[in-house]
Amino acid sequence: MLLLALALLVLVPATALASPAPSSGPGSVTEARVDVPGATLDTTLYLPATTPAPAVLVAHGFGGSKASVDDDARALADRGFVVLAWSARGFGASTGQIALNAPDAEVADASALLDRLAAMPEVVQDGPGDPRAGVTGASYGGALALLLAGYDPRVDAIAPVITWNDLGQALFPNAAAAGALPADTPARGAFAADGVFKRGWAGVFFSAGLGTGAPGEPGTDDATRPAVPAAPAPGASPTCGRFTPEVCAAYTDAATTGRLSPATAALLERSSPRTVTGRITAPTLLVQGEQDTLFGLDQADANAREIAANGTPVQVRWYAGGHDGAAPADDVRTAVGDWFDHHLLGTGDDPGTTFSYGVESGLRAGSSTATGRTVVAAGYPGLAGAGAVPTQDLALTGGARVVATPAGGSPAAITALPGLGGALGSLGGRISALTAALPGQSAQYASAALADPLLLTGAPRIDLTVSRVPGQPGPDEAILFVSASEVTPDGTRTLLGGAVAPVRVAVPADGSPVTVPVTLPGVVAPVEAGNRVVVTVGTTDQAYAGGTDPAAWSVDAGTVLTVPVVPGEAVTANTVPLGPAVGIGVVLGVALLAWGAAALLRRRGAAAVDPAPDAPPLEIRDLAKTYRGGFSAVRGVSFRVERGQVLGLLGPNGAGKTTVLRMLMGLIRPTAGTMTAFGEPVGPGAPVLARIGAFVEGPGFLPHLSGADNLRLYWAATGRPTAEAHLDEALEIAGLGASVQRRVGAYSQGMRQRLAIAQAMLGLPELLVLDEPTNGLDPPQIHAMREVLRRYAAGGRTVLVSSHLLAEVEQTCDHVVVMHHGQVVADGSVEDVIAGGGAATFAVDAPSRAADVLGALAGVHAVEVDGEQVHAELNGTPRASAVRALVTAGVDVASAGPRRRLEDAFLQLVGEDGPS
To answer: 20 to 30 A from 771, CA-CA: which of 212, 355, 598, 694?
Structure first.
């Protein structure tokens, strides 16, 4: 029950497209009940500020309701679409029974909603009864988008997310192909018959539909409430909940027999987009998660192949999340909006048919934010014009081994939990210990230590040979589970993709061996040099209904593991500092890489923009960021950074400094305003980001490696050529000397900070952005850091530094921007800001006469003689005019400058009580 509850808690968040906070735009939001055959649907209509406009249907995930996609709907309405969201039959406040996206039920319901849009004057019409409309949704909603596009030709564009192609294969997978499979696409699955029941996920989904709440029950439309079963609908069977009798019978049969009966196969077939992909002509954006033991990359691969075969434009995006990981991030949400902008509104550049995938570093920021980069290829390999799939063979050793299926299939290995994937370590050592291959039940086949890093991109393959062990009892079929792991020299094992490939193989009774091609789960997995890839063949897995009869099998994974490797261009690398709770990371800085994106834009046919040669390194205009609930962290921020400047960004805690830097680095998106660097727009994937380097808040390195090795490892992870790193120059500027060859574990805090600066300087970016670089440093180290920044800016490069140390900013920077309550309250040279109140000090040869001269000037007051110095409040009178008056009166002026320190000016600007 604990595992089921954990899975239910993540079910709705993982299957909903999270979006930015609702906008308070001028459009209206209207709720209505719509009667369809067999149900009444609870709907919400979102109108944009301007109509008529194209429409988008937004479907929710299994266990959710229209409330689950409210933010998505509002975000699309803000883009200018008429948006219609609804609770599918059997969910939320909608009546009817859950039929698993049956053509005559949920799909027909969506067609009825298109009819409703066709009758609305607010919706652009392509013809009588034909609204211009797109469909998007995640998981259950994603399949609905595909099915509706196949059944209803009025659909003009779709963007299905983390969904299935063949529901029978998703719930009864068999990775053992009957013969050789084409290696045309990177994640093609075997999709063989007679699969192994995925009982863990199937049980979660069935439980989520047992009682989704009676219509109108309080709280069932609360998007923040997990999809934990409530009371069944009135009159429903306690064992079937709100499912149709056919779905209930199919689940009962599968759960009790562990096999796919013809009746269940037919029911799942009717709910499979594969039945209609051959007639989908609506441009399709397919988004699939790389951390998904429910609907793997093979499902999106099949959808891509089948839809593209019609000549339909297809773009494929794999992201580092899924049902077992994070919801789509901002870049995915933006891609969905851009897709509809172009294909429905007719605005924006053509998104094209590129293929992108996320590469996680394995490190996390804080406790939840994954770090990594995005890689973009010209197209999805195997589709029209995209070329074949490059592969690499890894030699395996191991030979034939004997593995046993225990009686009852227990104990069973635990490799994944529904909704949690392979992330079991946090649940405690007793569970974590079972994630490894169990003794006697598994065989290992290892590659040699890799000489170079390897980026697996798709589904690895082996040839598996299975035979009965002579003299040992057993059934006429073997059920096995094949997986691949990365193993470090110290034995640490990481299950790639957090998933296994189930195999059901008929084995002759005479002991003859059977060899079958096996396709492992599709993954995106960077494997470090020096580590090994280990293939495991096991006999049990808790997530599946495996064999229960005691048996012994001879297995051999062969001598070669073939892995797909899809090259591309690293267009973003988002990295932030890491806390000690998740280990010390290699990534401290942000090397925002987009040097190849210009070529990508050319391939898309985008017009090149030639920025002015004298454009400043950074210009921010009217920048704003408003978070959920209406909190404005940044409001109307504008400033400009010139070449060769060291600019200090100042402000008390909560002033909005870090928010501005995070927007600049593409980590969060602004609500309004523009940012340009060197005359080019700044945003995730922008080519100009290759000219910017940064680090945020605090260092994190692998302690057992030297400083130089940490930097080399970081640069290798970016995917850029080694020659572009300029490692020696960065180290020279940082001034670490011979200590760069020492283990980082022996570094002082100051040395770590300087190494962090060196990492941010890799590639010698023209604009360096640093957030609190002197945190934790002692005075000599702060002095050294000051010299580092000055040396870096020498020669025309530019530094933007956020800091609380006002004395250091005064000595290091030549320009400052002061923020308070999210706004800029001062912007100018350090000298001008210090002198902002007019207090000045003059060193003169005749102090008394100088006091008389200054006191006679219009507006000047509070003149004070202090030895050979005279202090005065100039009150707007230029200091140069005061000097001229003194010299004209025969007073020799040795020096003239502001009386205050930067700290004095700062406190006058923001007050001494800090942010409210």
So the answer is: 598
